[in-house]
Design brief:
Structural class: mainly alpha
Shape: rod-shaped
Order of helices and strands: EEH
Oligomer: single chain
Distance between the termini: 99 Å
Helix content: 40-55%
Radius of gyration: 33 Å
Largest sheet: 2 strands, antiparallel
Number of helices: 1
């Protein structure tokens, strides 16, 4: 802990070297910094949840479309979704 002007302290990062009162000051500063970091992380997570919801909806849409491709009741003749049997008999 280094003392700057007007009894302000600057944390050196090694709290074990500080006096108890100085450690309390440092601890409060660390807690405040950690709270700011956690707040930023929480905002990022909320933002990502929104993005994840959009991605999840897109995946569900793609999965539904893929399911429809292989559903013979929906597929139409000639669209490539239904494999039509071909007469491959050999006339000898």
């Amino acid at each position: 802990m280094e003392q700057t002007n007007q009894n302000q302290f600057k944390c050196s990062g090694n709290c074990l070297q500080c006096l108890p009162a100085q450690r309390a000051y440092c601890s409060s500063q660390h807690a405040y910094s950690n709270m700011k970091v956690l707040d930023m992380v929480a905002k990022a997570v909320l933002s990502m949840q929104g993005e994840i919801s959009v991605i999840k909806e897109k995946i569900e849409t793609i999965q539904n479309n893929e399911a429809n491709i292989f559903d013979p009741s929906i597929a139409q003749k000639g669209d490539g979704a239904v494999i039509e049997p071909q007469n491959n008999s050999l006339n000898i």
